[in-house]
Amino acid sequence: xxxxxxxLEPKARHVAEVLAARPTIEGAGVHLRRAFGAAEVPRLxxxxxxxxxxxxxxxxxxxxxxxxxxxxxxxxxxxxxxxVEHEDSIGNKGIIGSGDVQWMSxxxxxxxxxxxxxxRHRMGGFQLWVNMPKISKMTDPRYQEVRSGQIPEVEPMRxxxxxxxxxxxxxxxxxxxxxxxxPEYVDVRVEPRTDFAHRVKPGHTxxxxxxxxxxxFDEDASDLVENGHLVIFRDGEVVRVTTRDDPxxxxxxxxxxLHEPIAWWGPIVMNNRKEIEEAVExxxxxxxxxxxxxxxxxxSA
Length: 301
Fold this sequence. Notes:
single chain, mainly beta, eight-stranded antiparallel β-sheet, eight-stranded mixed β-sheet
């Protein structure tokens, strides 16, 4: 036990793994880089997949993601550049533009499409898949759509700026609320020669994905992680970040693990094979959609 006048240092999160995003093709021919996916489950529980779809070549993205189903998961689309038009089978339609976020809770089922628009030839963004707790997998679908100007930015210290999509950072709440895994989703920019620490919840899964530059994510600051790499952290209370001569930008994401079985078929994630078979059968016979009105589905920040 520490003396009464001594404060214990919070336990640092050490780096468990660094993974390079790998090229892949999805949808109708969209070229992207996958930071993690099925091969990394369950060590990133409750997160299932993270795709980086940045490109300056319309031929690599314009075919988009035509009509496809989702059930049992949440898809988080964060746009940096360009626009994506989304539409679903129950009447929702809109544009996700630069800096915007759409957090879609598919619940019992949604059929939708996401189609990029050519805008100065540049398209850039990320899609994260989040598993839903068993108790929530068959709830009504819900959207939380947040415009860029509605996402707060905090500066915890000189040289660090953080856009808070979800969670509470230095007393500032992100606009995405009421998500079962208690997430934190932050877009972090760090200037050169900066050292800072960010508190995270013990027991939560935490990862960082480098968008730009280089940074160290361990206490000794000896190993610099390059852009396009994923950092998976061990347990602890603090993530430490150090930059040298280059600035860095990264997504920092955390959430409470579910510790539940996973049965995965494409865009449908349930808890057992029987539930997957039922979902596929319903999709094929036209009974997949359980909630048929738009009332109460959309939440705007």
